[in-house]
Design brief:
The complex is a heterodimer.
Chain A (H helix, E strand, L loop, with lengths): L7 H6 L4 H42 L14
Chain B lengths: L3 H6 L2 H7 L1 H25 L13 H28 L2 H33 L7 H22 L3 H15 L2 H11 L19 H33 L4 H8 L1
Helix pairs in contact in B: 3-9, 4-5, 4-7, 4-9, 5-6, 5-9, 6-7, 6-8
Classes of the chains: A mainly alpha, B mainly alpha.
Chain lengths: ~70, ~240
Amino acid sequence: MNFYFANFTEFLQMGTHGAYVWSCYFLMLVVLLALVITPHFRAQQLKKISRSRKSTVKTSPSSGSGSDHASAA
Amino acid sequence: MNWQWLHRFGSPKWFYEKTHLWVWGLGVLACGLIFVGAVWGLAFAPADAKQGNSYRIIYIHVPSAIVSMAGYYVMAIAGAIGLIWRTKLSFIVMRSAAPIGALLTFAALFTGAVWGKPTWGTFWVWDARITSMLILLFLYLGIIALQGAFQNQDAADRSAAWLAIVGMVNVPIIYKSVEWWNTLHQPATIKFTQKSTIDPSMLYPLIIMFFAFYLFYFWSLLRAVRVEILRRELKTQWVSDILKG
């Protein structure tokens, strides 16, 4: 199996189709990266929410920890 | 019949704890295969005799289109299981699958449009395959919107599940559209029952990309499901223990 193109410039040009091919691959890269990054950021957000909740629980001890909700599943 | 296994599998906590290692395995495999398939398809596969190099878009266009359709079944079946057995996890899967499917459908439409320009001379035609694919995107977006329209989580889940199930009729229409209607879109080049009409040197990277996109889909779904579990169970002790660490 060999590199199909004569040189790197030809590879980037893809005949006359470089703009079409590379724009598609670039968009797909953006989409895949979005799918990789999104859960990470959502988890970070939840961490923040969880921490701020905990601090409110500490200031008002009467509200309880709510640990029994885990058995609802 | 003993359905206990189903309810245990439907428990978000059990699922979250059991799938920790899967995230790493699937991620490495999916990203590695996408890299191999993309480099092979872009740089090592020969150019097409008729289309030249524009055909290289096939290596991302077809896998993303196939996975966006298969992903719709995943979402709708998860919704149906949620309606029937009322397992928490199935609605979480349905909810998480919708944005992933929408993004992949958009990517398939975009790459198809760009590929259409040098091949057919136009970015867009209202033919059966492309229009039914656009309907798939609207179904995904509709399900996301419906999920957000309700204050009550249960009502949101149930109505989105019904829409997902009704919309399932569109998937075989997309699949068969190139046979049922006389369209600009070419019929499938890879056939399971007859000889494929694509040369092996072009086929191998495509097969790699099929596997890679499926793996990437399930990897993304798994990660989205795990975060959605944390969001929905945020008030429980086990989740706050995880988020603390």
